[in-house]
Specification:
Radius of gyration of chain B: 39 Å
Distance between the termini of chain B: 99 Å
Largest sheet of chain A: none
Radius of gyration of chain A: 17 Å
Number of domains of chain A: 1
Oligomer: heterodimer
Strand content of chain A: under 5%
Largest interface: A-B, 40 and 30 residues
Protein backbone atom coordinates (compact mmCIF):
# COMPACT_ATOMS: atom_id res chain seq x y z
CA UNK A 1 0.00 0.00 0.00
CA UNK A 2 2.73 2.40 0.99
CA UNK A 3 4.82 1.42 -2.02
CA UNK A 4 1.81 1.94 -4.27
CA UNK A 5 1.25 5.43 -2.86
CA UNK A 6 4.96 6.11 -3.23
CA UNK A 7 4.82 5.46 -6.96
CA UNK A 8 1.25 6.47 -7.74
CA UNK A 9 1.00 9.84 -6.01
CA UNK A 10 3.80 11.54 -7.99
CA UNK A 11 2.23 10.39 -11.26
CA UNK A 12 -1.17 11.71 -10.18
CA UNK A 13 0.41 14.99 -9.13
CA UNK A 14 2.21 15.32 -12.44
CA UNK A 15 -1.01 14.74 -14.35
CA UNK A 16 -2.81 17.29 -12.17
CA UNK A 17 -0.07 19.87 -12.75
CA UNK A 18 -0.07 19.34 -16.52
CA UNK A 19 -3.85 19.63 -16.66
CA UNK A 20 -3.72 22.82 -14.58
CA UNK A 21 -1.03 24.38 -16.78
CA UNK A 22 -2.82 23.49 -19.99
CA UNK A 23 -6.16 24.82 -18.75
CA UNK A 24 -4.92 28.09 -17.28
CA UNK A 25 -3.23 29.04 -20.61
CA UNK A 26 -0.46 31.41 -19.58
CA UNK A 27 1.09 33.92 -21.87
CA UNK A 28 4.74 33.96 -20.90
CA UNK A 29 7.36 36.19 -22.40
CA UNK A 30 10.90 35.05 -23.09
CA UNK A 31 12.27 37.15 -20.22
CA UNK A 32 10.87 35.04 -17.41
CA UNK A 33 11.66 31.64 -18.88
CA UNK A 34 14.80 31.59 -16.70
CA UNK A 35 12.57 32.08 -13.65
CA UNK A 36 10.57 29.03 -14.56
CA UNK A 37 13.72 26.99 -15.13
CA UNK A 38 15.06 27.97 -11.71
CA UNK A 39 11.68 27.21 -10.15
CA UNK A 40 11.82 23.78 -11.76
CA UNK A 41 15.26 22.94 -10.38
CA UNK A 42 14.35 24.24 -6.90
CA UNK A 43 11.23 22.09 -6.88
CA UNK A 44 13.19 19.05 -8.01
CA UNK A 45 15.79 19.70 -5.31
CA UNK A 46 13.07 19.99 -2.68
CA UNK A 47 11.56 16.68 -3.78
CA UNK A 48 14.88 14.87 -3.33
CA UNK A 49 15.62 16.65 -0.08
CA UNK A 50 12.23 15.80 1.37
CA UNK A 51 12.63 12.18 0.37
CA UNK A 52 16.03 11.96 2.02
CA UNK A 53 14.66 13.54 5.19
CA UNK A 54 11.76 11.12 5.15
CA UNK A 55 14.15 8.22 4.87
CA UNK A 56 16.19 9.51 7.80
CA UNK A 57 13.00 9.94 9.80
CA UNK A 58 12.92 13.65 10.43
CA UNK A 59 10.59 14.90 7.74
CA UNK A 60 8.28 17.81 8.48
CA UNK A 61 6.00 19.45 5.96
CA UNK A 62 6.25 22.80 7.71
CA UNK A 63 10.03 23.03 7.39
CA UNK A 64 9.80 21.87 3.78
CA UNK A 65 7.31 24.59 2.93
CA UNK A 66 9.42 27.21 4.63
CA UNK A 67 12.53 26.01 2.82
CA UNK A 68 10.76 26.07 -0.51
CA UNK A 69 9.35 29.53 0.05
CA UNK A 70 12.61 31.14 1.10
CA UNK A 71 14.63 29.29 -1.52
CA UNK A 72 12.33 30.59 -4.22
CA UNK A 73 12.31 34.08 -2.76
CA UNK A 74 16.05 34.37 -2.55
CA UNK A 75 16.64 32.72 -5.92
CA UNK A 76 14.28 35.13 -7.63
CA UNK A 77 15.87 38.03 -5.79
CA UNK A 78 19.26 36.95 -7.09
CA UNK A 79 17.87 36.49 -10.60
CA UNK A 80 16.44 39.99 -10.57
CA UNK A 81 19.72 41.45 -9.42
CA UNK A 82 21.52 39.48 -12.10
CA UNK A 83 19.10 40.72 -14.70
CA UNK A 84 19.72 44.32 -13.61
CA UNK A 85 23.49 43.85 -13.54
CA UNK A 86 23.45 41.79 -16.71
CA UNK A 87 25.22 38.86 -15.06
CA UNK A 88 23.98 35.31 -15.64
CA UNK A 89 23.48 34.54 -11.95
CA UNK A 90 21.14 31.66 -12.72
CA UNK A 91 24.19 29.54 -13.55
CA UNK A 92 25.29 29.91 -9.92
CA UNK A 93 21.83 28.83 -8.79
CA UNK A 94 21.91 25.80 -11.07
CA UNK A 95 25.33 24.76 -9.73
CA UNK A 96 24.31 25.16 -6.07
CA UNK A 97 21.02 23.33 -6.40
CA UNK A 98 22.56 20.69 -8.64
CA UNK A 99 25.22 19.87 -6.03
CA UNK A 100 22.55 19.74 -3.30
CA UNK A 101 20.41 17.52 -5.46
CA UNK A 102 23.17 15.02 -6.13
CA UNK A 103 24.31 14.83 -2.52
CA UNK A 104 20.75 14.12 -1.42
CA UNK A 105 20.38 11.56 -4.20
CA UNK A 106 23.55 9.83 -2.96
CA UNK A 107 22.07 9.69 0.54
CA UNK A 108 18.81 8.25 -0.78
CA UNK A 109 20.56 5.59 -2.82
CA UNK A 110 22.65 4.60 0.21
CA UNK A 111 19.51 4.29 2.31
CA UNK A 112 17.76 2.24 -0.34
CA UNK A 113 20.54 -0.17 -1.05
CA UNK A 114 21.98 -0.55 2.45
CA UNK A 115 19.44 -3.29 3.22
CA UNK A 116 20.10 -5.15 -0.01
CA UNK A 117 22.39 -8.13 0.21
CA UNK A 118 24.69 -8.65 -2.71
CA UNK B 1 12.85 -2.34 1.83
CA UNK B 2 11.14 -0.79 4.80
CA UNK B 3 10.53 2.81 5.78
CA UNK B 4 11.30 3.74 9.34
CA UNK B 5 8.15 5.68 10.15
CA UNK B 6 4.97 6.29 8.24
CA UNK B 7 4.36 9.98 7.78
CA UNK B 8 1.18 10.99 6.05
CA UNK B 9 2.46 14.51 5.49
CA UNK B 10 5.28 13.17 3.35
CA UNK B 11 2.79 11.80 0.86
CA UNK B 12 0.97 15.10 0.74
CA UNK B 13 4.34 16.72 0.12
CA UNK B 14 5.12 14.21 -2.60
CA UNK B 15 1.81 14.87 -4.33
CA UNK B 16 2.08 18.65 -4.13
CA UNK B 17 5.67 18.76 -5.26
CA UNK B 18 5.04 16.55 -8.27
CA UNK B 19 2.03 18.69 -9.17
CA UNK B 20 4.29 21.74 -9.08
CA UNK B 21 6.87 19.92 -11.17
CA UNK B 22 4.26 19.00 -13.77
CA UNK B 23 2.94 22.56 -13.79
CA UNK B 24 6.29 24.25 -14.24
CA UNK B 25 7.58 21.59 -16.62
CA UNK B 26 4.60 21.85 -18.93
CA UNK B 27 4.84 25.65 -18.95
CA UNK B 28 8.52 25.38 -19.77
CA UNK B 29 7.80 22.83 -22.49
CA UNK B 30 5.16 25.00 -24.13
CA UNK B 31 7.51 27.94 -24.03
CA UNK B 32 10.44 26.11 -25.53
CA UNK B 33 8.56 23.77 -27.80
CA UNK B 34 10.51 25.01 -30.78
CA UNK B 35 13.72 23.91 -29.11
CA UNK B 36 12.34 20.53 -28.14
CA UNK B 37 10.88 19.73 -31.55
CA UNK B 38 13.85 21.26 -33.43
CA UNK B 39 11.49 23.48 -35.38
CA UNK B 40 12.92 26.39 -37.30
CA UNK B 41 10.00 28.59 -36.25
CA UNK B 42 9.87 30.54 -33.00
CA UNK B 43 7.55 29.59 -30.19
CA UNK B 44 5.42 32.69 -30.71
CA UNK B 45 4.92 31.74 -34.35
CA UNK B 46 3.98 28.20 -33.36
CA UNK B 47 1.48 29.44 -30.76
CA UNK B 48 0.02 31.93 -33.24
CA UNK B 49 -0.28 29.25 -35.89
CA UNK B 50 -1.95 26.93 -33.43
CA UNK B 51 -4.45 29.62 -32.38
CA UNK B 52 -5.26 30.40 -35.99
CA UNK B 53 -5.62 26.72 -36.77
CA UNK B 54 -8.01 26.38 -33.86
CA UNK B 55 -10.06 29.30 -35.14
CA UNK B 56 -10.06 27.85 -38.63
CA UNK B 57 -11.37 24.59 -37.28
CA UNK B 58 -14.11 26.41 -35.40
CA UNK B 59 -15.06 28.38 -38.51
CA UNK B 60 -15.18 25.20 -40.58
CA UNK B 61 -17.39 23.56 -38.00
CA UNK B 62 -19.73 26.57 -38.00
CA UNK B 63 -19.69 26.57 -41.78
CA UNK B 64 -20.75 22.95 -41.96
CA UNK B 65 -23.51 23.61 -39.44
CA UNK B 66 -24.80 26.60 -41.42
CA UNK B 67 -24.62 24.66 -44.67
CA UNK B 68 -26.82 21.96 -43.24
CA UNK B 69 -29.22 24.69 -42.11
CA UNK B 70 -29.23 26.15 -45.62
CA UNK B 71 -30.09 22.76 -47.05
CA UNK B 72 -32.95 22.36 -44.61
CA UNK B 73 -34.32 25.81 -45.38
CA UNK B 74 -33.99 25.25 -49.12
CA UNK B 75 -36.01 22.07 -48.78
CA UNK B 76 -38.67 23.95 -46.83
CA UNK B 77 -38.65 26.76 -49.40
CA UNK B 78 -39.09 24.36 -52.31
CA UNK B 79 -42.02 22.74 -50.49
CA UNK B 80 -43.50 26.18 -49.96
CA UNK B 81 -43.07 27.21 -53.60
CA UNK B 82 -44.68 24.00 -54.84
CA UNK B 83 -47.68 24.60 -52.62
CA UNK B 84 -50.95 25.25 -54.42
CA UNK B 85 -51.93 28.18 -52.20
CA UNK B 86 -48.66 29.92 -52.99
CA UNK B 87 -49.20 29.59 -56.74
CA UNK B 88 -52.74 30.95 -56.40
CA UNK B 89 -51.46 33.84 -54.33
CA UNK B 90 -48.87 34.62 -57.02
CA UNK B 91 -51.55 34.66 -59.71
CA UNK B 92 -53.74 36.93 -57.63
CA UNK B 93 -50.86 39.27 -56.84
CA UNK B 94 -50.09 39.58 -60.55
CA UNK B 95 -53.74 40.14 -61.32
CA UNK B 96 -54.09 42.90 -58.73
CA UNK B 97 -50.76 44.45 -59.66
CA UNK B 98 -48.94 44.04 -56.39
CA UNK B 99 -46.40 41.88 -58.17
CA UNK B 100 -44.42 43.22 -61.10
CA UNK B 101 -44.58 41.50 -64.47
CA UNK B 102 -42.27 41.18 -67.44
CA UNK B 103 -42.76 40.01 -70.97
CA UNK B 104 -43.44 40.95 -74.58
CA UNK B 105 -45.78 43.85 -75.14
CA UNK B 106 -46.46 47.12 -76.84
CA UNK B 107 -44.79 50.43 -76.00
CA UNK B 108 -46.78 53.53 -77.00
CA UNK B 109 -45.10 56.93 -76.73
CA UNK B 110 -47.52 59.87 -76.69
CA UNK B 111 -46.04 63.37 -76.89
CA UNK B 112 -47.50 66.88 -76.89
CA UNK B 113 -47.67 68.55 -80.29
CA UNK B 114 -44.50 70.24 -81.49
CA UNK B 115 -46.33 72.49 -83.94
CA UNK B 116 -46.24 76.23 -83.14
CA UNK B 117 -49.59 77.69 -82.20
CA UNK B 118 -51.26 79.88 -84.80
CA UNK B 119 -53.61 82.72 -84.06
CA UNK B 120 -57.04 81.39 -83.25
CA UNK B 121 -55.89 77.83 -82.47
CA UNK B 122 -57.18 76.20 -79.30
CA UNK B 123 -54.04 75.30 -77.25
CA UNK B 124 -55.89 72.40 -75.66
CA UNK B 125 -55.91 70.41 -78.88
CA UNK B 126 -52.14 69.88 -78.91
CA UNK B 127 -51.86 68.75 -75.29
CA UNK B 128 -52.28 65.24 -73.88
CA UNK B 129 -54.95 65.34 -71.16
CA UNK B 130 -55.69 62.93 -68.38
CA UNK B 131 -58.87 61.86 -70.16
CA UNK B 132 -56.78 60.95 -73.20
CA UNK B 133 -54.61 58.70 -71.07
CA UNK B 134 -57.68 57.06 -69.57
CA UNK B 135 -59.01 56.39 -73.06
CA UNK B 136 -55.70 54.93 -74.21
CA UNK B 137 -55.56 52.64 -71.17
CA UNK B 138 -59.12 51.54 -71.86
CA UNK B 139 -58.33 50.77 -75.47
CA UNK B 140 -55.21 48.86 -74.51
CA UNK B 141 -57.18 46.77 -72.08
CA UNK B 142 -59.86 46.08 -74.64
CA UNK B 143 -57.12 45.10 -77.10
CA UNK B 144 -55.96 42.42 -74.67
CA UNK B 145 -53.32 43.96 -72.44
CA UNK B 146 -52.88 42.03 -69.22
CA UNK B 147 -51.15 44.88 -67.40
CA UNK B 148 -50.60 48.54 -68.23
CA UNK B 149 -48.18 51.13 -66.93
CA UNK B 150 -47.67 54.83 -67.73
CA UNK B 151 -44.15 56.21 -67.19
CA UNK B 152 -43.37 53.24 -64.92
CA UNK B 153 -46.52 53.77 -62.85
CA UNK B 154 -48.64 50.61 -62.87
CA UNK B 155 -52.34 51.07 -63.56
CA UNK B 156 -54.23 49.04 -60.98
CA UNK B 157 -57.78 49.15 -59.68
CA UNK B 158 -56.85 51.84 -57.14
CA UNK B 159 -55.07 54.07 -59.65
CA UNK B 160 -56.43 57.50 -60.34
CA UNK B 161 -55.34 59.48 -63.37
CA UNK B 162 -56.05 63.09 -62.54
CA UNK B 163 -55.19 66.42 -64.07
CA UNK B 164 -53.42 68.95 -61.89
CA UNK B 165 -52.52 71.88 -64.07
CA UNK B 166 -49.77 71.26 -66.59
CA UNK B 167 -48.92 67.83 -65.18
CA UNK B 168 -50.83 64.60 -64.66
CA UNK B 169 -50.89 62.69 -61.38
CA UNK B 170 -50.91 58.89 -61.45
CA UNK B 171 -50.72 56.87 -58.20
CA UNK B 172 -49.86 60.10 -56.43
CA UNK B 173 -46.79 60.57 -58.62
CA UNK B 174 -46.53 63.38 -61.13
CA UNK B 175 -45.82 62.42 -64.72
CA UNK B 176 -45.29 64.66 -67.71
CA UNK B 177 -45.09 64.40 -71.46
CA UNK B 178 -43.79 62.31 -73.15
CA UNK B 179 -45.96 59.52 -71.81
CA UNK B 180 -44.60 56.02 -72.30
CA UNK B 181 -47.53 53.65 -72.05
CA UNK B 182 -46.52 50.02 -71.77
CA UNK B 183 -49.03 47.22 -72.28
CA UNK B 184 -48.20 43.63 -71.50
CA UNK B 185 -49.65 41.11 -73.93
CA UNK B 186 -49.50 39.94 -77.52
CA UNK B 187 -48.07 42.99 -79.37
CA UNK B 188 -49.35 42.14 -82.83
CA UNK B 189 -52.90 41.55 -81.64
CA UNK B 190 -52.94 44.83 -79.70
CA UNK B 191 -51.44 46.70 -82.59
CA UNK B 192 -54.10 45.44 -85.00
CA UNK B 193 -56.78 46.72 -82.69
CA UNK B 194 -55.14 50.10 -82.04
CA UNK B 195 -54.32 50.72 -85.71
CA UNK B 196 -57.96 50.67 -86.73
CA UNK B 197 -58.95 53.88 -88.52
CA UNK B 198 -61.52 54.87 -85.89
CA UNK B 199 -59.36 54.12 -82.85
CA UNK B 200 -58.69 56.78 -80.27
CA UNK B 201 -54.96 56.90 -81.03
CA UNK B 202 -55.72 57.78 -84.65
CA UNK B 203 -57.92 60.63 -83.47
CA UNK B 204 -55.08 61.94 -81.32
CA UNK B 205 -52.70 61.73 -84.26
CA UNK B 206 -55.16 63.70 -86.35
CA UNK B 207 -55.24 66.37 -83.62
CA UNK B 208 -51.47 66.81 -84.02
CA UNK B 209 -50.22 64.73 -81.10
CA UNK B 210 -47.32 62.44 -81.96
CA UNK B 211 -48.04 58.77 -81.26
CA UNK B 212 -45.45 56.01 -81.68
CA UNK B 213 -46.11 52.32 -81.29
CA UNK B 214 -43.24 49.86 -80.83
CA UNK B 215 -43.46 46.18 -79.95
CA UNK B 216 -40.88 45.24 -77.39
CA UNK B 217 -40.12 43.84 -74.00
CA UNK B 218 -42.06 45.64 -71.27
CA UNK B 219 -41.66 45.64 -67.50
CA UNK B 220 -44.65 46.52 -65.34
CA UNK B 221 -43.39 47.60 -61.89
CA UNK B 222 -45.24 46.39 -58.78
CA UNK B 223 -47.81 48.64 -57.18
CA UNK B 224 -46.48 49.70 -53.81
CA UNK B 225 -48.55 52.66 -52.62
CA UNK B 226 -51.69 52.73 -50.53
CA UNK B 227 -51.36 49.13 -49.35
CA UNK B 228 -52.81 49.80 -45.92
CA UNK B 229 -52.94 46.63 -43.93
CA UNK B 230 -55.34 47.49 -41.12
CA UNK B 231 -58.29 49.16 -42.80
Amino acid sequence: MRILAFFLLPVLGLILGIILASNLSFSITEDISVFIAVGLIITLDLLVEGTSQYLSGKFSLRSMMLTYFFNLLFAYFLLTIGHLMRIDLYIALFIVFGIKLFSNLAYISQKFFSKLQF
Amino acid sequence: MKFRTFQFTYFIFLFLISAGLGFLGSIYYVQHEARFTKSRYSTAAILRTRALYHRLGQAEYQNAHLESQVEELNLKASEFYEDNAYITAQHLAKFVGVLGQEGPGLVITVKDSDKPLLLGDNPNTGIVHNSDLVEIVNELRVAGAKAVSINHQPIVNLTGISCSGPIITINGTRVTSPFVIEGLGNPNQMRKRLDKPKSFLKELQNAGISVEMMPGKVMIPPYSQGLVEDT
